[in-house]
Amino acid sequence: MNYDLRSIQLLAGLSVETLDTLSTCLQYKTYKKNGAILWEKDPCRWVYFILSGKVDIYLLAPNGREQLLERLGAGEGFNLVPAFKHGANNQANARAASDVELLRINKDDFSDSLECLPEFGKAAADYLAQRLARMVNLVENLSLLSVRQRLAAFLIKQADHHAGRWTQDEMARRLGSVRDVIGRALRKMEDESLIRFERQRILLLDRERLQKIADGEQ
């Protein structure tokens, strides 16, 4: 199987020698859409990198409510944090949000590579720092912003990144809410001529006002 290791963010800046060493530890794996990749609290066994497709990282409450933490795409990695600790468990669930191609590395090989390949260790630390910043931003949004603010910011971000379609259920899981609340918020925005629904897509009609809502100015 041929794949470009430099398409993986964490590996993009590594030397040929380091990549050659790592390549002997990497395994190619595919999952169909909605396939479970790992479960929270299971022993950590693998670190994953996405070659193609999208992966949802999420938590489940005892009542079954789901909180989507991230939707990761090609080039990104996941399950790195527990791999740094001896005997740690997976900290979240991972599910294929589309058909996905992955590379995975055994936790022990990952740990050994961090020690034996300083270049790789530094790249992993830098990548984790970026991911931590994103998690801090998520916590701040969930704690301090209203659903309407979070929804406005989400719609702007998706438009900027030309992201794929999200169902109202998926938006609710991403924004820490429930489908009915998201549905009402979207209908209110439509009534206010901020957005328009068109062929299962949401078009932004007044980005400036949406940005003010996201910033808490309205």
Could you please describe the fold and organization of this structure?
The protein has 218 residues and is an alpha+beta fold. Helices cover 40% and strands 23% of the residues. It contains seven helices and ten strands. It has helices at residues 16-23, 107-116, 118-144, 147-160, 168-175, 179-191, 207-214; strands at 26-31, 36-38, 46-52, 55-60, 66-72, 77-78, 93-96, 100-106, 195-198, 201-204. The protein starts with 15 loop residues before the first helix and ends with a helix. 28% of the residues are buried.
The value of Rg in angstroms is: 19 Å
Number of strands: 10
Whole-number tally of structural domains: 2
The CATH class of the largest domain turns out to be: Mainly Beta
Secondary-structure map:
Layout: H1 16-23, E1 26-31, E2 36-38, E3 46-52, E4 55-60, E5 66-72, E6 77-78, E7 93-96, E8 100-106, H2 107-116, H3 118-144, H4 147-160, H5 168-175, H6 179-191, E9 195-198, E10 201-204, H7 207-214
Antiparallel strand pairs: 1-8, 2-7, 3-6, 3-8, 4-5, 4-7, 9-10
Helix pairs in contact: 2-3, 4-7, 5-6
